[in-house]
Amino acid sequence: MQLYNKLSAKERAALIEKAGKRRITLSFYKYHQIENTSLFRDHLYLMWEKLEVLGRIYVASEGINAQLSVPSQNFNEFKINLDSVRFLKEIRLNVAVEQDDFSFLKLKVKIRKKIVADGLTENNFDLSNNGKHINASEFNSLTDDPNTLLVDMRNHYESEIGHFEGAILPDVDSFRESLPIIEKKFEEHKESKNIVMYCTGGIRCEKFSGFLLNEGFDNVFQLDGGIVTYGKDEEVRGEGYEGECYVFDERLSVSVNQTEGAKLVSKCRSCGVPSIRYRNCAWMPCNAQILLCEDCEERIGRYCDCRCKEVDLMSRSAVIGI
Questions:
Q1: Catalytic residue positions?
Q2: Is there a contact between 201 and 133 (Cβ–Cβ < 8 Å)?
Q3: Which domains does the chain have, with CATH numbers?
Q4: pLDDT tens across 138-190, in order?
Q5: Helices H / strands E in the chain, number of each
Q6: Tens digit of pLDDT for each residue in 110-141?
Q7: C-alpha–C-alpha distance, residues 105 and 13, integer Å
Q8: What is the Cα–Cα distance from 164 to 192, expressed in whole angstroms?
Q9: Rounded CA gap, 143 and 222, in Å?
Q10: What value does the CA radius of gyration of the chain take, rounded to a whole number of Å?
Q11: pTM of the predicted model, to two decimals?
């Protein structure tokens, strides 16, 4: 019984190209108590491997978080498979605004402690009691209200390439870091302000909105389906979102604003030209994601700053005995 990948990413990419089949990139999540995560993980792998599903799926006792791609001709059977799982029946699927047949190159179904690392020692609140879900039009109306505080629940390297105008953008590297910062910032507005939050697909808002309600906040809202769904709304067409949306697959970023005048907001860290070209810092202990245009990478190397470059070059010199 095969419960792991036999092919490398390179081999899989070659097969996808040779097959010439269109693939659908999508995501979904669900908070639900799963008793036997190992059994559920194996069941998903066996079920989806047969359908040539590729992607990154996290399973935990609190639920499932999935980003994946499915051959278009297998989509109906994939949906039937999902509906066969009681708590996933008729679940909303966030289909990507932009499609890419190579968005995922392996099927990875992993067991984790949590489907999103939040830093909470335990979930001592009801995950089914969360903020009011609002659609794209409602989101725009509510964020135009001066009595509204809008917050981006993503990490700094995600919001750096795109965000909603006027949003609070926490300068954090992970979701777990943002929770105490945002809670403290909003403390004085528990009863007086509308707290509106958004993220890529909705999963982080689902957790944090429930947390805020448990902490006594009154008016908590979340963008239904996240930025991905907002960009697909035929009436709004992504208007109000500036730049690109960061995604956790081979594409790295996708367009959201489908209106005229949409522009990039992100810039090369070194020279400041408009850029959405992400690279990882060449100094491995750092490995930070940085925006770096091709010219600057060729000129200064793939480093986030001069300190990383100096340390990396020193360590390399020490290894070769210079």
A1: 199
A2: no
A3: 9-111 (3.30.70.100), 132-245 (3.40.250.10), 267-320 (no CATH)
A4: 999 999 999 999 999 999 989 999 999 999 999 888 888 888 888 888 888 88
A5: 10, 14
A6: 999 999 877 776 666 777 788 999 999 999 99
A7: 6
A8: 22
A9: 11
A10: 21
A11: 0.82
